[in-house]
Design brief:
The chain has about 100 residues and is α+β, with helices and mostly antiparallel strands. The chain has one domain: Double Stranded RNA Binding Domain (2-Layer Sandwich), CATH 3.30.160. About 70% of the residues lie in helices and about 15% in strands. The protein contains two helices and two strands, in the order ββαα. A two-stranded antiparallel ribbon has the order 1-2. A hairpin with a 2-residue loop joins strand 1 and strand 2. The radius of gyration is 23 Å and the shape is elongated. It starts with 5 loop residues before the first strand and ends with a helix.
Length: about 100
């Protein structure tokens, strides 16, 4: 059973945010906050965007693109694995039929 959520403070672009988080998810939350902070700094330091809202939206779009690419890659790998398993099963069936 998971422990009750507790408040955790994360810092993103010099602003602190309190987030409720289960103790066993704290590390993932901290890593996510660090990653988001790095991405937002990268967008901000690019010099083209200064509004916090716009920086957040650009980071969200960049991360959404990254997630979609990774999903696509995962689907392609799953399809290749499925095909490989089918090929191996067919070879095994052929071998067994010959015996």
């Amino acid at each position: 059973m998971s422990a009750a959520a507790e408040p955790v403070t994360v810092r993103i672009l010099e602003r602190e945010y309190r987030v409720m988080c289960a103790p066993d998810q704290r590390r993932d939350l901290m890593e996510s906050a660090l990653y988001l902070d790095q991405q937002m700094r990268q967008v901000r330091d690019g010099g083209r965007i200064s509004s916090m809202d716009k920086i957040a939206v650009m980071c969200a779009l960049n991360m959404a693109e990254e997630v979609l690419k990774l999903r696509h890659q995962l689907q392609e790998r799953e399809q290749k694995i499925d095909q490989r398993v089918r090929d191996l099963a067919n070879r095994l069936d052929s071998q067994m039929a010959e015996d």
